[in-house]
Design a protein that fits this description.
Blueprint lengths: L1 E4 L6 H13 L5 E4 L5 H7 L1
Parallel strand pairs: 1-2
Length: about 45
């Protein structure tokens, strides 16, 4: 499992790091914690 959190809205840097770390560690789950989620990031995480 990989977890990334940020004290603000989602952004490309955090989403790409989360996906890269997840793939590199064969994580079964990825969790992104943020104060706001833009629609395009929610769609990418579905």
């Amino acid at each position: 499992m990989v977890i990334d959190n940020l004290l603000g809205p989602t952004n490309h840097e955090h989403l790409s790091k989360l996906l890269t770390y997840g793939a590199g560690t064969n994580a079964k789950a990825a969790i992104l914690v943020a104060t706001e989620f833009a629609d395009e990031y929610l769609k990418a995480l579905e």
